[in-house]
Amino acid sequence: MKHIIILGDGMADHPVARLGGKTLLQYADKPYMNMLACKGRTGRLITIPEGFLPGSEVANTAILGYDLNRVYEGRGPLEAASIGYDMQPDDFAMRCNLITLSNDIIKNHSGGHLTTDEGDILIKYLNDKLGNDKIEFITGIQYRHLLIIRGGNKHIICAPPHDHPNEQWKELMVKPEPGWEDKHDGKRMTAKETADLINELILKSHDLLSRHPLNQNRKAKGKDAANSIWPWGGGYRPDMEKLSDIYPQIKSGSVISAVDLIRGIGYYAGLKIIKVEGATGLADTNYEGKAEAALKALKTDDFVFLHLEASDEAGHDGDLELKLKTIENLDSRIIKPVYEEIKTWKDDPVCMAILPDHPTPVEVRTHVKEPVPFIIWYDGITPDDVKTYDEVSCVNGSYGMLRLDEFMKTFMKY
Length: 414
Ligand SMILES: [Zn+2]
Hints:
By secondary structure, the protein is an alpha/beta fold. The protein has helices spanning 24-27, 31-39, 56-63, 68-71, 75-82, 116-130, 191-211, 213-220, 243-246, 260-268, 287-300, 310-316, 320-342, 406-411, and strands at residues 2-8, 41-46, 91-102, 105-108, 135-141, 144-150, 156-157, 175-176, 228-235, 253-256, 272-274, 303-308, 350-355, 372-377, 401-403. It has two domains: 2-72 and 239-411, CATH 3.40.720.10; 86-235, no CATH class. The strands form three sheets. It has an eight-stranded mixed β-sheet with strand order 11-10-12-1-13-14-2-15, with helices on both faces. β3 (91-102) and β4 (105-108) form a beta hairpin. It binds zinc ion. Zinc ion (ZN) is lined by residues 9-10, 56, 59, 312, 357-358.
Protein backbone atom coordinates (compact mmCIF):
# COMPACT_ATOMS: atom_id res chain seq x y z
CA MET A 1 0.00 0.00 0.00
CA LYS A 2 1.13 3.56 -0.73
CA HIS A 3 0.99 6.29 1.91
CA ILE A 4 0.22 9.99 2.01
CA ILE A 5 0.36 12.29 5.04
CA ILE A 6 -1.60 15.53 4.68
CA LEU A 7 -0.42 17.93 7.34
CA GLY A 8 -2.19 21.20 8.21
CA ASP A 9 0.49 23.13 10.09
CA GLY A 10 -0.78 24.56 13.39
CA MET A 11 -4.37 23.57 12.53
CA ALA A 12 -5.44 22.37 16.00
CA ASP A 13 -6.79 24.99 18.40
CA HIS A 14 -8.61 25.68 21.65
CA PRO A 15 -12.32 26.25 22.34
CA VAL A 16 -13.21 29.84 21.39
CA ALA A 17 -16.00 31.81 23.08
CA ARG A 18 -16.90 33.60 19.83
CA LEU A 19 -17.62 30.15 18.31
CA GLY A 20 -19.91 29.16 21.17
CA GLY A 21 -17.09 27.35 22.94
CA LYS A 22 -16.20 25.22 19.91
CA THR A 23 -12.70 24.76 18.55
CA LEU A 24 -12.05 25.87 14.97
CA LEU A 25 -11.99 22.27 13.73
CA GLN A 26 -15.36 21.70 15.43
CA TYR A 27 -16.82 24.87 13.92
CA ALA A 28 -15.39 24.79 10.39
CA ASP A 29 -17.33 23.37 7.45
CA LYS A 30 -15.15 20.38 6.53
CA PRO A 31 -17.25 17.51 5.18
CA TYR A 32 -14.29 15.47 3.87
CA MET A 33 -12.36 15.41 7.13
CA ASN A 34 -15.56 14.35 8.92
CA MET A 35 -16.33 11.68 6.33
CA LEU A 36 -12.79 10.28 6.65
CA ALA A 37 -13.09 10.29 10.46
CA CYS A 38 -16.30 8.24 9.97
CA LYS A 39 -14.74 5.80 7.52
CA GLY A 40 -11.34 5.63 9.17
CA ARG A 41 -9.78 5.39 12.60
CA THR A 42 -8.72 8.27 14.81
CA GLY A 43 -6.62 9.12 17.82
CA ARG A 44 -4.36 11.74 19.29
CA LEU A 45 -0.62 12.16 19.01
CA ILE A 46 2.03 13.76 21.18
CA THR A 47 4.39 15.38 18.66
CA ILE A 48 6.83 17.25 20.94
CA PRO A 49 9.31 15.22 22.98
CA GLU A 50 10.16 16.10 26.54
CA GLY A 51 12.68 18.93 26.76
CA PHE A 52 11.88 20.41 23.32
CA LEU A 53 9.98 23.57 22.43
CA PRO A 54 6.98 23.08 20.09
CA GLY A 55 8.72 24.14 16.87
CA SER A 56 7.40 22.95 13.52
CA GLU A 57 10.76 21.36 12.70
CA VAL A 58 10.62 19.36 15.94
CA ALA A 59 7.01 18.22 15.48
CA ASN A 60 7.34 17.30 11.79
CA THR A 61 10.54 15.34 12.44
CA ALA A 62 8.80 13.41 15.24
CA ILE A 63 5.76 12.72 13.05
CA LEU A 64 8.08 11.15 10.46
CA GLY A 65 9.25 8.82 13.22
CA TYR A 66 12.68 10.20 14.11
CA ASP A 67 14.14 10.45 17.61
CA LEU A 68 14.74 14.17 18.14
CA ASN A 69 17.29 13.53 20.88
CA ARG A 70 19.44 11.81 18.27
CA VAL A 71 18.83 13.79 15.07
CA TYR A 72 17.93 17.36 16.10
CA GLU A 73 20.51 19.83 14.78
CA GLY A 74 18.46 23.02 14.57
CA ARG A 75 17.48 25.19 11.68
CA GLY A 76 20.73 25.85 9.82
CA PRO A 77 21.23 22.31 8.48
CA LEU A 78 17.56 22.05 7.40
CA GLU A 79 17.71 25.34 5.53
CA ALA A 80 21.02 24.30 3.96
CA ALA A 81 19.32 21.21 2.53
CA SER A 82 16.35 23.23 1.35
CA ILE A 83 18.51 25.61 -0.70
CA GLY A 84 20.44 22.70 -2.17
CA TYR A 85 23.69 22.84 -0.17
CA ASP A 86 24.88 19.30 0.54
CA MET A 87 26.43 19.46 4.02
CA GLN A 88 29.72 17.66 4.60
CA PRO A 89 30.54 15.85 7.86
CA ASP A 90 32.76 18.62 9.29
CA ASP A 91 30.44 21.49 8.25
CA PHE A 92 28.66 23.65 10.78
CA ALA A 93 25.68 25.36 9.11
CA MET A 94 24.06 28.47 10.58
CA ARG A 95 21.04 30.53 9.58
CA CYS A 96 22.59 33.88 8.70
CA ASN A 97 20.13 36.79 8.89
CA LEU A 98 20.89 40.12 7.31
CA ILE A 99 19.67 42.52 9.97
CA THR A 100 19.52 46.23 10.78
CA LEU A 101 21.69 47.52 13.61
CA SER A 102 21.02 51.09 14.69
CA ASN A 103 23.73 52.46 16.98
CA ASP A 104 23.79 49.96 19.86
CA ILE A 105 20.53 48.11 19.24
CA ILE A 106 19.02 45.54 16.92
CA LYS A 107 16.47 47.62 15.03
CA ASN A 108 15.02 44.67 13.11
CA HIS A 109 15.82 41.03 12.26
CA SER A 110 15.03 41.33 8.55
CA GLY A 111 17.28 44.10 7.20
CA GLY A 112 14.15 46.20 6.69
CA HIS A 113 12.46 43.52 4.56
CA LEU A 114 15.22 42.97 2.05
CA THR A 115 14.40 41.33 -1.29
CA THR A 116 16.14 38.13 -2.38
CA ASP A 117 17.96 40.01 -5.16
CA GLU A 118 19.32 42.56 -2.68
CA GLY A 119 20.25 39.82 -0.21
CA ASP A 120 22.09 37.94 -2.96
CA ILE A 121 24.22 41.00 -3.78
CA LEU A 122 25.20 41.53 -0.14
CA ILE A 123 25.85 37.86 0.60
CA LYS A 124 28.04 37.45 -2.50
CA TYR A 125 29.93 40.59 -1.50
CA LEU A 126 30.52 39.21 2.01
CA ASN A 127 31.65 35.88 0.65
CA ASP A 128 34.07 37.68 -1.62
CA LYS A 129 35.52 39.76 1.24
CA LEU A 130 35.30 37.33 4.19
CA GLY A 131 35.00 33.85 2.64
CA ASN A 132 37.90 31.41 2.67
CA ASP A 133 38.45 27.65 2.89
CA LYS A 134 36.75 27.65 6.33
CA ILE A 135 34.00 30.21 5.78
CA GLU A 136 31.30 30.35 3.13
CA PHE A 137 28.25 32.61 2.78
CA ILE A 138 25.44 31.20 0.65
CA THR A 139 22.36 33.06 -0.58
CA GLY A 140 18.98 31.88 0.66
CA ILE A 141 15.74 33.87 0.50
CA GLN A 142 15.11 37.56 1.32
CA TYR A 143 17.01 38.29 4.58
CA ARG A 144 17.44 34.57 5.42
CA HIS A 145 20.81 33.19 4.30
CA LEU A 146 23.36 30.56 5.23
CA LEU A 147 26.80 30.65 6.83
CA ILE A 148 28.94 27.52 6.64
CA ILE A 149 31.90 27.23 9.04
CA ARG A 150 34.03 24.18 8.26
CA GLY A 151 35.13 22.66 11.57
CA GLY A 152 32.79 24.93 13.56
CA ASN A 153 31.68 23.74 17.01
CA LYS A 154 27.94 23.74 17.74
CA HIS A 155 28.30 24.17 21.51
CA ILE A 156 27.72 27.90 21.44
CA ILE A 157 24.93 30.19 22.57
CA CYS A 158 23.37 32.40 19.90
CA ALA A 159 20.47 34.83 20.15
CA PRO A 160 17.74 34.51 17.48
CA PRO A 161 17.47 38.16 16.38
CA HIS A 162 13.65 38.13 16.10
CA ASP A 163 13.50 37.44 19.85
CA HIS A 164 15.57 40.51 20.71
CA PRO A 165 14.30 43.62 18.92
CA ASN A 166 15.55 46.91 20.40
CA GLU A 167 18.07 45.13 22.62
CA GLN A 168 21.79 45.97 22.91
CA TRP A 169 23.41 43.81 20.23
CA LYS A 170 26.89 43.64 21.71
CA GLU A 171 25.49 41.90 24.78
CA LEU A 172 23.81 39.33 22.51
CA MET A 173 26.95 38.26 20.68
CA VAL A 174 27.92 34.59 20.55
CA LYS A 175 29.25 32.85 23.66
CA PRO A 176 30.59 29.34 24.20
CA GLU A 177 28.33 26.98 26.15
CA PRO A 178 29.53 26.78 29.75
CA GLY A 179 31.91 23.81 30.05
CA TRP A 180 32.63 23.76 26.30
CA GLU A 181 34.97 26.79 26.14
CA ASP A 182 38.15 24.82 25.43
CA LYS A 183 36.56 21.58 24.20
CA HIS A 184 36.93 20.50 20.59
CA ASP A 185 33.97 18.13 19.80
CA GLY A 186 36.01 15.66 17.76
CA LYS A 187 38.44 17.38 15.42
CA ARG A 188 36.48 20.63 15.38
CA MET A 189 37.72 23.95 16.73
CA THR A 190 36.79 24.74 20.33
CA ALA A 191 33.50 26.40 21.18
CA LYS A 192 35.33 29.59 22.18
CA GLU A 193 37.27 29.68 18.90
CA THR A 194 33.98 29.25 17.03
CA ALA A 195 32.24 32.00 19.03
CA ASP A 196 35.19 34.37 18.54
CA LEU A 197 35.23 33.68 14.80
CA ILE A 198 31.49 34.37 14.42
CA ASN A 199 31.70 37.57 16.49
CA GLU A 200 34.59 38.76 14.35
CA LEU A 201 32.48 38.06 11.23
CA ILE A 202 29.59 40.07 12.70
CA LEU A 203 31.85 43.08 13.36
CA LYS A 204 33.56 42.92 9.96
CA SER A 205 30.23 42.46 8.15
CA HIS A 206 28.80 45.48 9.97
CA ASP A 207 31.70 47.59 8.78
CA LEU A 208 31.55 46.30 5.18
CA LEU A 209 27.77 46.37 4.81
CA SER A 210 27.35 49.84 6.35
CA ARG A 211 29.51 51.23 3.53
CA HIS A 212 28.00 49.14 0.72
CA PRO A 213 26.33 51.23 -2.04
CA LEU A 214 23.16 49.12 -1.90
CA ASN A 215 22.68 50.11 1.72
CA GLN A 216 23.59 53.74 1.07
CA ASN A 217 20.87 53.66 -1.55
CA ARG A 218 18.33 52.11 0.81
CA LYS A 219 19.06 54.78 3.40
CA ALA A 220 18.68 57.54 0.79
CA LYS A 221 15.20 56.14 0.10
CA GLY A 222 14.33 56.14 3.80
CA LYS A 223 14.61 52.36 4.15
CA ASP A 224 16.52 50.46 6.84
CA ALA A 225 19.99 49.30 5.83
CA ALA A 226 20.76 45.57 6.01
CA ASN A 227 23.99 46.49 7.72
CA SER A 228 25.06 43.34 9.58
CA ILE A 229 24.91 39.58 9.55
CA TRP A 230 23.45 37.78 12.56
CA PRO A 231 24.16 34.01 12.55
CA TRP A 232 22.18 31.61 14.78
CA GLY A 233 20.44 28.19 14.75
CA GLY A 234 23.62 26.31 13.85
CA GLY A 235 24.11 22.56 13.63
CA TYR A 236 25.89 19.64 11.99
CA ARG A 237 24.55 17.41 9.24
CA PRO A 238 21.65 15.50 10.88
CA ASP A 239 22.30 11.82 11.39
CA MET A 240 18.98 10.77 9.82
CA GLU A 241 18.46 7.43 8.13
CA LYS A 242 16.42 7.56 4.96
CA LEU A 243 12.78 6.55 5.38
CA SER A 244 13.37 3.98 2.63
CA ASP A 245 16.00 2.32 4.87
CA ILE A 246 13.63 2.23 7.83
CA TYR A 247 10.45 1.19 6.00
CA PRO A 248 11.16 -1.21 3.11
CA GLN A 249 7.77 -0.54 1.50
CA ILE A 250 8.92 3.06 0.83
CA LYS A 251 11.05 2.70 -2.28
CA SER A 252 10.76 6.34 -3.19
CA GLY A 253 9.00 9.31 -1.65
CA SER A 254 8.40 13.04 -1.97
CA VAL A 255 7.86 16.08 0.20
CA ILE A 256 5.67 18.97 -0.96
CA SER A 257 5.90 22.14 1.15
CA ALA A 258 6.48 25.87 0.74
CA VAL A 259 8.50 25.93 3.98
CA ASP A 260 12.31 25.58 4.00
CA LEU A 261 12.47 23.65 7.27
CA ILE A 262 10.00 21.03 6.10
CA ARG A 263 11.77 20.62 2.77
CA GLY A 264 15.04 20.19 4.69
CA ILE A 265 13.58 17.46 6.91
CA GLY A 266 12.32 15.73 3.78
CA TYR A 267 15.74 15.95 2.17
CA TYR A 268 17.51 14.22 5.07
CA ALA A 269 14.69 11.66 5.19
CA GLY A 270 15.60 10.80 1.59
CA LEU A 271 12.50 12.34 0.01
CA LYS A 272 12.46 14.27 -3.26
CA ILE A 273 11.61 17.93 -2.80
CA ILE A 274 8.77 18.87 -5.14
CA LYS A 275 8.31 22.62 -5.66
CA VAL A 276 4.89 23.80 -6.73
CA GLU A 277 4.48 27.09 -8.52
CA GLY A 278 2.40 29.52 -6.48
CA ALA A 279 2.93 27.62 -3.20
CA THR A 280 3.34 30.52 -0.77
CA GLY A 281 2.91 29.06 2.71
CA LEU A 282 -0.03 31.46 3.16
CA ALA A 283 -3.79 31.34 2.72
CA ASP A 284 -3.39 32.37 -0.94
CA THR A 285 -1.29 29.29 -1.72
CA ASN A 286 -1.85 27.19 -4.83
CA TYR A 287 -3.97 24.46 -3.19
CA GLU A 288 -5.00 22.89 -6.50
CA GLY A 289 -1.37 22.77 -7.67
CA LYS A 290 -0.28 21.06 -4.47
CA ALA A 291 -3.08 18.47 -4.63
CA GLU A 292 -2.23 17.79 -8.26
CA ALA A 293 1.49 17.46 -7.47
CA ALA A 294 0.73 15.04 -4.64
CA LEU A 295 -1.42 12.83 -6.87
CA LYS A 296 1.20 12.88 -9.61
CA ALA A 297 3.91 11.92 -7.11
CA LEU A 298 1.75 9.07 -5.77
CA LYS A 299 1.63 7.57 -9.26
CA THR A 300 5.36 6.80 -9.06
CA ASP A 301 6.27 7.14 -5.35
CA ASP A 302 5.16 5.04 -2.39
CA PHE A 303 5.15 7.89 0.12
CA VAL A 304 4.16 11.57 -0.03
CA PHE A 305 4.39 14.15 2.75
CA LEU A 306 2.08 17.03 1.78
CA HIS A 307 2.48 20.02 4.09
CA LEU A 308 0.24 23.11 4.17
CA GLU A 309 1.46 26.07 6.22
CA ALA A 310 -1.52 28.46 5.96
CA SER A 311 -3.34 27.56 9.20
CA ASP A 312 -0.21 28.19 11.26
CA GLU A 313 0.28 31.66 9.80
CA ALA A 314 -3.38 32.54 10.43
CA GLY A 315 -2.94 31.31 14.02
CA HIS A 316 0.14 33.49 14.52
CA ASP A 317 -1.85 36.45 13.18
CA GLY A 318 -4.67 35.67 15.62
CA ASP A 319 -7.05 35.77 12.65
CA LEU A 320 -10.01 33.54 13.51
CA GLU A 321 -11.91 33.98 10.23
CA LEU A 322 -8.82 33.37 8.14
CA LYS A 323 -7.83 30.28 10.10
CA LEU A 324 -11.34 28.83 9.66
CA LYS A 325 -10.99 29.52 5.93
CA THR A 326 -7.61 27.72 5.77
CA ILE A 327 -9.17 24.64 7.41
CA GLU A 328 -12.07 24.71 4.95
CA ASN A 329 -9.64 25.18 2.05
CA LEU A 330 -7.59 22.20 3.19
CA ASP A 331 -10.79 20.16 3.23
CA SER A 332 -12.31 21.22 -0.09
CA ARG A 333 -9.19 21.97 -2.15
CA ILE A 334 -6.68 19.36 -0.92
CA ILE A 335 -8.38 16.47 0.87
CA LYS A 336 -11.40 16.32 -1.44
CA PRO A 337 -9.48 16.07 -4.76
CA VAL A 338 -6.88 13.70 -3.28
CA TYR A 339 -9.51 11.41 -1.74
CA GLU A 340 -11.80 11.43 -4.78
CA GLU A 341 -8.89 10.34 -6.98
CA ILE A 342 -7.19 7.74 -4.78
CA LYS A 343 -10.44 6.00 -3.83
CA THR A 344 -10.62 4.87 -7.47
CA TRP A 345 -7.13 3.28 -7.41
CA LYS A 346 -8.33 -0.23 -6.58
CA ASP A 347 -5.13 -1.91 -7.80
CA ASP A 348 -2.86 0.64 -6.18
CA PRO A 349 -4.47 1.46 -2.82
CA VAL A 350 -3.33 4.45 -0.79
CA CYS A 351 -3.42 4.88 2.97
CA MET A 352 -3.99 8.50 4.02
CA ALA A 353 -3.31 10.30 7.29
CA ILE A 354 -4.53 13.78 8.21
CA LEU A 355 -3.12 15.74 11.13
CA PRO A 356 -1.57 19.01 12.32
CA ASP A 357 1.95 19.16 13.74
CA HIS A 358 0.94 21.18 16.84
CA PRO A 359 -1.83 23.62 17.75
CA THR A 360 -1.28 27.32 16.97
CA PRO A 361 -4.35 28.64 18.81
CA VAL A 362 -5.69 31.96 17.50
CA GLU A 363 -6.02 33.31 21.03
CA VAL A 364 -2.45 32.33 21.98
CA ARG A 365 -0.85 33.29 18.64
CA THR A 366 2.04 30.89 19.03
CA HIS A 367 2.66 27.14 19.07
CA VAL A 368 1.60 25.19 22.15
CA LYS A 369 2.81 21.82 23.35
CA GLU A 370 -0.41 19.79 23.30
CA PRO A 371 -1.46 16.57 21.55
CA VAL A 372 -3.04 16.79 18.09
CA PRO A 373 -5.96 14.79 16.63
CA PHE A 374 -5.32 12.51 13.64
CA ILE A 375 -7.17 10.30 11.15
CA ILE A 376 -5.86 7.23 9.34
CA TRP A 377 -7.97 5.93 6.46
CA TYR A 378 -7.63 3.43 3.64
CA ASP A 379 -10.33 1.65 1.64
CA GLY A 380 -11.26 -1.31 3.82
CA ILE A 381 -9.99 -0.15 7.23
CA THR A 382 -12.35 -1.04 10.09
CA PRO A 383 -13.72 2.28 11.36
CA ASP A 384 -13.93 3.28 15.01
CA ASP A 385 -16.89 5.12 16.60
CA VAL A 386 -15.59 8.64 16.01
CA LYS A 387 -17.75 10.48 13.47
CA THR A 388 -16.11 13.92 13.22
CA TYR A 389 -12.55 15.17 13.09
CA ASP A 390 -11.58 17.55 15.87
CA GLU A 391 -9.63 17.90 19.11
CA VAL A 392 -12.59 16.72 21.25
CA SER A 393 -14.03 13.82 19.22
CA CYS A 394 -10.62 12.21 18.62
CA VAL A 395 -10.15 11.79 22.39
CA ASN A 396 -12.39 8.72 21.92
CA GLY A 397 -10.48 7.44 18.89
CA SER A 398 -9.43 3.80 18.80
CA TYR A 399 -5.71 4.59 18.61
CA GLY A 400 -5.90 6.38 21.95
CA MET A 401 -2.94 8.61 22.67
CA LEU A 402 0.16 7.81 20.61
CA ARG A 403 3.59 9.26 21.31
CA LEU A 404 6.10 10.53 18.73
CA ASP A 405 7.39 7.70 16.49
CA GLU A 406 4.41 5.46 17.35
CA PHE A 407 2.38 7.35 14.74
CA MET A 408 4.70 6.55 11.82
CA LYS A 409 5.11 2.94 12.98
CA THR A 410 1.32 2.56 13.16
CA PHE A 411 0.73 4.29 9.80
CA MET A 412 3.35 2.26 7.96
CA LYS A 413 1.94 -1.07 9.22
CA TYR A 414 -0.84 -0.78 6.65
ZN1 LIG B 1 4.15 23.94 12.65
